[in-house]
């Protein structure tokens, strides 16, 4: 925070101009008695006055949070849309874009109406209250963060509420109705995302009772979406022809471009979660970079060893795996530890995608669970292992209170997984027995671009 310079008596004396020649003297009796009796401010009083003047929104912190908000939104639109859109077949590329744009609209409306309040106002262990419903009190004054305006903080958090349900569609791509996605998103935000944002970041259960830490969303974003995605994919069933005919990506180029956008946007995601343009943001920026870079190499190396060649799609998936793994830890671990996050963030999701999926037989179309569910859980537990007291005072506080941070992280992982699965089962079957989840076989064969939107992604 900027502090204004203090003026000392010596400075004031040096700055006093010489008296004008032959200026008439003013009789002492003519000076107002009140002015003569007013003592000068002491140094302590002047410091207090300046500190009071500097309280409130810090322009540097606010500017960084505005930038981070734009970066995280850029991750969804167009980053995630390109990443997912390239992996599906060409007859479904527009459906991915349409679903993500629709999710942004649903999330924005709910966030304004009640979501921000349920996540960040005072409440109980699971939900906040309604004091900020319809953005009441969400203005340009400091709020949740002391140096950032509440409206900027609320918009930053909205971008997280957009990308989290958008991640889920990767598991059910090419076989879920557009109307089902809209209804699912609304119910899932209310039942899963808003409570977990409150439980972890709003002073709820996973912050107050269970001393888990999550810097930027390992549990709140990646685990909730990953486990929900797996559950929804199983309930929905496999794609038509899955395991019988090839279902290759239609454009790895789009996916590679989307990966680059996601990587850059992730600096807003992780470094922005520091809430200020400070050293914690710098540490998160550095750990994010190294984890992503190393994970891309690690996944590629695994493919080279086990499959003969490192694919570009695999390297891109590794980058995302590293970003997911470091997310809960970005501001809590050293750069050296982030290398380990990168190695494991590339290797562990690789085995989940390449072997666990085949072993269990589920159709996670774009590997949301393998990357985000597995990677998020991995990152959350590793945060407990490598959280550094030298890097973060929060880590020091939790350990200083006698808690086993690894155990607390495991508890959080278990609660997140169970809650996400149960809530998704209820929501999915509610939609299935009302408006339905899947298109008809004919519509699926035709492609969701035409079936849902009446458009082609490409003109032949």
UniProtKB/TrEMBL annotation:
Q: Which InterPro entries match?
A: Ammonium/urea_transptr, Ammonium_transpt, Ammonium_transpt_CS, NH4_transpt_AmtB-like_dom
Origin species, per record, is: Luteolibacter flavescens
Q: Which compartments is it annotated to reside in? A: Cell membrane; Membrane
* Superkingdom, taxonomy of origin: Bacteria
Stretch list, region Disordered: 1-38
What residues does the Ammonium transporter AmtB-like domain cover? Answer: 63-458
Could you tell me which Pfam families the record lists for this protein?
Ammonium_transp
Gene3D superfamilies named among the record's database cross-references: Ammonium transporter AmtB like domains
Give the protein name, as stated in the record. Ammonium transporter
| Keywords carried by this UniProt record | Ammonia transport, Membrane, Transmembrane, Transmembrane helix, Transport
Q: Where is the composition biased (Low complexity)?
A: 22-38
**What topology does it adopt in the membrane?**
Multi-pass membrane protein
Membrane-spanning residues: 63-88, 100-120, 152-173, 180-201, 213-237, 249-269, 281-300, 312-333, 339-356, 368-387, 412-431
Name the protein family: Belongs to the ammonia transporter channel (TC 1.A.11.2) family.
């Amino acid at each position: 925070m900027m502090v204004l310079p203090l003026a000392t008596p010596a400075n004031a004396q040096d700055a006093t101009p010489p008296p004008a020649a032959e200026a008439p003297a003013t009789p002492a009796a003519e000076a107002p008695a009140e002015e003569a009796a007013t003592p000068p401010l002491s140094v302590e009083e002047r410091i207090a006055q300046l500190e009071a003047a500097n309280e409130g929104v810090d322009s540097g912190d606010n500017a960084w949070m505005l930038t981070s908000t734009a970066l995280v939104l850029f991750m969804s639109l167009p980053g995630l849309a390109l990443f997912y859109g390239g992996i599906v077949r060409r007859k479904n590329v527009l459906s991915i874009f349409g679903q993500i744009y629709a999710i942004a609209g649903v999330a924005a409306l709910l966030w304004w109406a009640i979501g921000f309040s349920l996540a960040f106002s005072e409440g109980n262990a699971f939900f906040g209250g309604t004091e900020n419903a319809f953005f009441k009190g969400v203005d340009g004054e400091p709020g949740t963060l002391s140096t950032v305006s509440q409206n900027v903080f609320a918009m930053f958090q909205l971008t997280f509420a957009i990308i989290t349900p958008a991640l889920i569609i990767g598991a059910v791509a090419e076989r879920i109705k557009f109307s089902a996605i809209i209804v699912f998103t609304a119910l899932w935000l209310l039942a899963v995302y808003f409570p977990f944002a409150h439980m972890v970041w709003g002073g709820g259960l996973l912050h107050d009772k269970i001393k888990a830490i999550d810097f930027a969303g390992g549990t709140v974003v990646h685990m909730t979406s990953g486990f929900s995605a797996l559950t929804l994919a199983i309930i929905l069933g496999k794609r038509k022809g899955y395991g019988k005919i090839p279902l290759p990506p239609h454009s790895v180029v789009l996916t590679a471009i989307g990966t680059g956008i996601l990587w850059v946007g992730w600096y807003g995601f992780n470094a922005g979660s520091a809430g200020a343009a400070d050293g914690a943001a710098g540490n998160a920026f550095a750990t994010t970079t190294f984890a992503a870079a190393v994970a891309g190499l690690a996944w590629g190396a695994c493919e080279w060893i086990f499959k003969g060649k490192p694919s570009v799609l695999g390297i891109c998936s590794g980058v995302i795996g590293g970003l997911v793994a470091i997310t809960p830890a970005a501001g809590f671990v050293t750069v050296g530890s982030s290398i380990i996050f990168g190695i494991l963030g590339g290797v562990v999701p690789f085995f989940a995608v390449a072997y666990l999926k085949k072993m269990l037989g589920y159709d996670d179309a774009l590997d949301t669970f393998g990357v985000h569910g597995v990677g998020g859980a991995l990152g959350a537990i590793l945060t407990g292992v490598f959280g550094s007291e030298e890097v973060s005072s929060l880590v020091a506080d939790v350990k200083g209170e006698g808690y086993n941070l690894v155990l607390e992280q495991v508890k959080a992982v278990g609660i997140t997984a169970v809650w996400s699965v149960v809530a998704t089962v209820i929501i999915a079957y509610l939609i299935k027995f009302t408006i339905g989840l899947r298109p008809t076989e004919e519509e699926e064969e035709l492609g969701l671009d035409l079936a849902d939107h009446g458009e082609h992604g490409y003109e032949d």
